[in-house]
Amino acid sequence: xxxxxxxxxxxxxxxxxxxxxxxxxxxxxxxxxxxxxxxxxxxxxxxxxxxxxxxxxxxxxxxxxxxxxxxxxxxxxxxxxxxxxxxxxxxxxxxxxxxxxxxxxxxxxxxxxxxxxxxxxxxxxxxxxxxxxxxxxxxxxxxxxxxxxxxxxxxxxxxxxxxxxxxxxxxxxxxxxxxxxxxxxxxxxxxxxxxxxxxxxxxxxxxxxxxxxxxxxxxxxxxxxxxxxxxxxxxxxxxxxxxxxxxxxxxxxxxxxxxxxxxxxxxxxxxxxxxxxxxxxxxxxxxxxxxxxxxxxxxxxxxxxxx
Length: 307
Known about the structure:
The protein is mostly helical. The protein has two domains: 2-185, Cation efflux protein transmembrane domain (Alpha-lytic protease prodomain-like); 192-267, Cation efflux protein, cytoplasmic domain (Alpha-Beta Plaits, 2-Layer Sandwich). Helix content is 57%, strand content 8%. The protein is built from ten helices and three strands. A hairpin with a 2-residue loop joins strand 1 (212-221) and strand 2. Helix 2 (8-34) packs parallel to helix 7 (158-170), helix 3 (47-77) packs antiparallel against helix 7 (158-170) and helix 3 packs antiparallel against helix 8 (172-185). The longest helix is centred in the N-terminal third of the chain and has 31 residues, at 47-77. The N and C termini lie far apart (156 Å).
C-alpha cells in the first residue's frame, strides 16, 4: 500500500504491524527450544535466546522509526506531500480492524502463557490499535479541511505530521524492550526495588528457620529468574533436610509473585577473618615434655681410719 499511496504514515504503521506478525510466527518455532532443560554445557538453558530475540526486534524497530522521522522532517521542510486520502482512509480502517483482532488474540494467549515475549506483544498490539485508529481519524481531517480555504494549505502536511506523531509515540516501547534485553544478556541484576521485594519475601519465608540471608544473587534471563540466597546460621551447622524444606517453601512463595523462578539456598562458606592468638606447635619440632631431674646425692667426705 505504501508504493500505491507513498504515505509515510502507512509505511511506519505497516512496518510495525508486519514486524509483529513476523516476530509472532518466529516465536512459535522458538518455544520448544525455551523448554529444554539446563545442562553442564548450557547452565542457563536457552532462556537467553528469548532476550536475544527481543533485542533484535527492538533494534530493528528503533532504526526504522528514526529513519521515518528523519524522512518526514525532510518532507515537511520541502512543503509536504499530496496523497490520495480516500485510499489511505480505507487502508487505515482495515488496519485498525486487523490490529484489534491481533490484540484480542495476544490478550487471550497472555492468560495462558505468562512469558515476557507475550507481555511485550500485548502492549505492542494495543499501541498499534490506538495508533492505527489515530491515523484513520487524522487523515479524516482532510475532508473538512478541503471546504475551508484558510485550512487548505495544511493538507500536504497532514501525512508527514501524522507519521512523526505515530513514530514518536511508538519509539519508547522498542527502546524499553531493547534496554531490558541488554540488561538480561549481560546478566545484570533486576532493579533495586525488585531486589528489596525479593528480600522481603525471603525474610518472611525464613521465619522459624535458623538461617540469615547475607547476600542475594538475582539474574533475569528471558522467562527465567535465577535467585541464589547465601545464608549463614549461628550454630555453623546446617540440617540438609531442613535446608531443602526451606528452599521448597521459598520457591513456592517467589513463584507466586514471579514467573520462571529457579531458587537455591547456598551455605555461605566465606573464610573467617578472626585469627587465633594461641601459639601453634610446629609439626616438625614436637614439644618435648619436661622431665624431673633427681637431686644429686650429697658428697660424703673421706675419713681416715683410726688404728
